[in-house]
């Protein structure tokens, strides 16, 4: 399961940690800026799960995590300002990207995130079609 869904599981773990941090830190209430952080973390988990790995775009799942983590940073800084509590939310976003980037994944089309490619972009284990 980790081998196939590792990237999605890393994104879900990041979302769970973001929810836990938002709910348990400070006043133990989820404020509007924390709700936005949680929504972005959930969108990251869903996006990473839904994006398939294509032979030419094996980085697509990680790209989704990066784009949404940048949005997380912008929303955190713009909505809540940058204080000591916000740095932890930003750290969670960065760790989510690192986890998604490092985790394994295999899409239903058989493409793996870490399978070597040939110069044509096809996986090395599949025949190259001309």
**Over all CA atoms, what is the radius of gyration?**
17 Å
Beta content comes to under 5%
Tally the helices. Answer: 4
Output the helix-strand order.
HHHH
Q: Quote the distance from N terminus to C terminus.
A: 34 Å
The coarse silhouette is elongated
Identify low-pLDDT runs: 126-130
Largest sheet: none
What average pLDDT do the residues reach? Answer: 83
Structural class of the helices, strands and pairings?
Answer: mainly alpha
What does this structure look like?
63% of the residues lie in helices and 0% in strands. It has 130 residues and is mainly alpha-helical. Helix 1 (2-24) runs antiparallel to helix 2 (32-50). The longest helix has 23 residues, at 2-24. The radius of gyration is 17 Å and the shape is elongated. The termini are far apart.
Relevant terms:
elongated; single chain; 4 helices; 130 residues; 0% strand; mainly alpha
């Amino acid at each position: 399961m980790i081998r196939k869904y590792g990237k999605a599981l890393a994104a879900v773990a990041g979302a769970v940690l973001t929810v836990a941090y938002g709910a348990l830190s400070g006043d133990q209430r989820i404020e509007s800026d924390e709700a936005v952080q949680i929504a972005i973390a959930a969108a990251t988990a869903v996006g990473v799960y839904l994006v398939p790995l294509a032979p030419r775009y094996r980085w697509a799942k990680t790209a989704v995590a990066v784009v949404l983590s940048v949005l997380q940073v912008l929303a955190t800084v713009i909505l809540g300002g940058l204080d000591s509590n916000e740095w932890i939310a930003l750290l969670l976003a960065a760790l989510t990207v690192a986890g998604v980037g490092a985790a394994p994944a295999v899409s239903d089309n058989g493409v793996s995130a870490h399978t070597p490619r040939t110069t044509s972009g096809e996986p090395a284990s599949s025949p190259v079609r001309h």
